[in-house]
Amino acid sequence: MSTLQHLISPQASDVGFPVQRLLPAAEVASVGPFVFFDHMGPARFARVGTAGDVRPHPHIGLATVTYLYSGAMMHRDSLGYVQRIEPGAINLMAAGCGIVHSERVPADIRADQTPVHGIQIWLALPAASEEMAPAFHHYPAESLPVFAAEGVSLRLLIGAAFGLVSPVIAYSPTFQADIELAAGATLDLPPDYPERGVYLAGGRLRIAGTSLEPGHLAVLTPGRSAPLEAETTARLMVFGGEPLEGRRFIYWNFVARRRERIEIAKADWATGRFTPVPGETEFIPPPWRQ
Known about the structure:
Elements: E1 4-8, E2 11-14, E3 18-23, E4 34-43, E5 54-59, E6 62-70, E7 73-77, E8 82-85, E9 90-94, E10 99-104, H1 107-111, E11 116-124, E12 135-139, E13 146-149, E14 152-161, E15 164-165, E16 174-181, E17 186-189, E18 195-202, E19 205-207, E20 210-212, E21 217-220, E22 226-230, E23 234-241, E24 249-251, E25 254-256, H2 259-270
């Protein structure tokens, strides 16, 4: 049996700037609780104006995790949080029963023409937390555990793996790690979780002898160790967890176990019943007909 269960190619998308989308995919809808995976940029934005800004928009039923390789973004939400995120840090926003947020390119990033580059994911909240009160948490880079060995640099972003435990809140058994490998370096990814994915952000990598192209996602076979070998300097994101306890429906920015809950959220956004972001007057209009 092959160590690789699926190989997923990126799909180009645009959320105010270009992204490569890996999840959801036709081959697999989720990996553990991860139901959405975007590789953003690198992208530079006009020195003046709002190009690249993501205007206020709503979420339900999920937790978003933003992680940057370079640049910065400014988060604002309907709870009143205003938080700049920079490389190596984590912004985690649990939407629960409903939250609104914006993500904007800071003025200094525009002026300096610094590329904005990173990963944004959604984790479906478990049934018991799906309607929780919304929450926001910021974790600076120095708060996240790291591991270094010959040719291997690893930062654990969420959950427990590689003998490390992250302080980032995990609503279900899961893990996510940012890994850099020197050319020729190897790392064994153990079968600690039933569902695991390996995303290659840059460089060249072999998984159990099979080459993984940059920008592609490998979904691994459960119960098997996965030896990772860097053919060149490589940067990858590994992640996974326990399977979801049932199907999730995704429509626009909403994730739910029931279609009816999404219809309620659509109506709430269309009629202005979501709490707005303080100080923000723009918003993304609903993408459906009234």
